[in-house]
């Protein structure tokens, strides 16, 4: 049986938009692609009831409001070859379309050459004719009732009498607080090139602001606290893999910037934040390397603590959970960004060599940390 168009679109949308934080990531990417310098975010119930992003970017022309929300329409790519040198976050033209199939979507936008702003409402990706309104240059995108028509994803949620969302045991999404925490992570770690402001509607707490050009360490301190920030080892390296072009005709290399928790410090759960060319992504091979290096470093550390314990009543770390922030930068030609609909994965050339180099660097950092710890106790 051939599925009807609406069903196909809703299934596809579920692949792109998993949870509020990743809808927010898509909206922020669009705002940055539009050249914004300030962005403010409003959130209600962990982003499930409301997710609103307002930017001061170049806006969307009235005549483009219709296609902006259709699948596979983008202003950022015109032919496949453009992908090899793409500098924008977006290129698939799927985010707004996906959001419009699983939420109520409104866009208010104004371009510099327009006399007024336009407010557009969409139903299943279809534009209801936009109306003129007052506004300033930029775009506000409002996403309400995310997953209202995706019962499986919302199965876990039901509205209680006090209008809070409550989890049932078969949770598909986490609770609003956890979703909000994810949103905070995305907001802070996302970019340091724009000023971001995040507010929880109807809540006095939990608001965050980021400065332009804030350092990764500053952002980590803001989200995860000063205690963790004090325990971080910083590393910045540039590696050229084939300097003389004898092995490969391509000169390949990369920059690696890391903030690692030292092996004496453990966070509640493993946190691994990876940026590749400024994109927040995931990488199985790098994650596996981290886990193995940290578990070895932890064993090393436990042996050491055992000796100390003879004289001091100390407890052993029960399995160390590391915090790792990593930013990798490659020349765009070394990177394939089109691997996954959420753009959550990227592939890069010379993966084995790069991963090996990362492993060696983390080992060096952690061994150095243990050496300094030993020294400080011996004195
Ligand atoms: P993509 O980012 O891959 O192009 P999206 O579905 O995320 O696809 O967005 C579709 C189009 O809508 C973009 O190509 C862009 O032209 C426009 N757009 C979306 N958000 C904004 C924004 N905040 N400011 C200006 N234009 C936007
Ligand atoms: Mg986009």
UniProtKB/TrEMBL annotation:
GO terms for cellular component: MutLalpha complex. GO terms for biological process: mismatch repair. One of its GO terms (molecular function) is mismatched DNA binding. Coiled coil: none annotated. It is found in: Nucleus. Keywords: DNA damage, DNA repair, Nucleus. The keyword tRNA processing does not apply. Residues 220-367 form the DNA mismatch repair protein S5 domain. It comes from the Eukaryota. Its main location: nucleus. Belongs to the DNA mismatch repair MutL/HexB family. This is DNA mismatch repair protein S5 domain-containing protein. The lineage of its organism: Eukaryota, Cryptophyceae, Pyrenomonadales, Geminigeraceae, Guillardia. The chain holds residues 1 to 379 of 748 of the full protein.
């Amino acid at each position: 049986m051939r599925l009807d168009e609406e069903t196909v679109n809703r299934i596809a949308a579920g692949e792109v938009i998993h949870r509020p934080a990743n809808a927010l990531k898509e909206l922020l990417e669009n705002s940055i692609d539009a050249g914004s310098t300030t962005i403010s975010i409003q959130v209600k119930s962990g982003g499930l009831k409301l997710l609103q992003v307002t930017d001061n970017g170049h806006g969307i022309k009235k005549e483009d409001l219709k296609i902006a929300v259709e699948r596979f329409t983008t202003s950022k790519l015109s032919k496949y070859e453009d992908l090899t040198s793409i500098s924008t976050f977006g290129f698939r033209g799927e985010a707004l379309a996906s959001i419009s199939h699983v939420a109520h979507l409104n866009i208010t936008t104004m371009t510099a050459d327009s006399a007024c702003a336009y407010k557009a409402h969409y139903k299943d990706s279809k534009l209801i004719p936009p109306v003129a309104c007052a506004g300033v240059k930029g775009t506000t995108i409002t996403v309400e009732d995310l997953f209202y028509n995706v019962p499986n994803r919302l199965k876990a949620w039901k509205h209680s009498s006090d209008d809070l969302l409550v989890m049932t045991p078969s949770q598909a999404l986490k609770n609003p607080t956890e979703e909000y925490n994810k949103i905070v992570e995305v907001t802070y770690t996302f970019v340091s090139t724009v000023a971001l402001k995040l507010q929880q509607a109807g809540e006095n707490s939990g608001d965050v602001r980021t400065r332009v050009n804030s350092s990764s360490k500053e952002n980590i301190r803001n989200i995860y606290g000063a205690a963790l920030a004090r325990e971080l080892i910083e590393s910045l390296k540039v590696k050229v893999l084939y300097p003389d072009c004898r092995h490969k005709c391509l000169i390949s290399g990369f920059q690696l910037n890391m903030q690692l928790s030292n092996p004496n410090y453990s966070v509640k759960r493993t946190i691994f934040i990876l940026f590749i060319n400024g994109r927040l992504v995931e990488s199985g091979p790098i994650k596996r390397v981290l886990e193995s290096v940290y578990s070895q470093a932890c064993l090393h550390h436990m042996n050491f603590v055992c000796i100390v314990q003879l004289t001091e009543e100390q407890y052993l770390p029960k399995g160390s959970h590391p915090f790792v922030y990593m930013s990798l930068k490659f020349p765009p030609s070394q990177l394939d960004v089109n691997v996954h609909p959420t753009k959550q994965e990227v592939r890069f050339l010379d993966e084995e060599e790069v991963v090996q180099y990362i492993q060696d660097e983390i080992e060096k950092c952690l061994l150095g940390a243990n050496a300094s710890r030993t020294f400080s106790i011996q004195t």
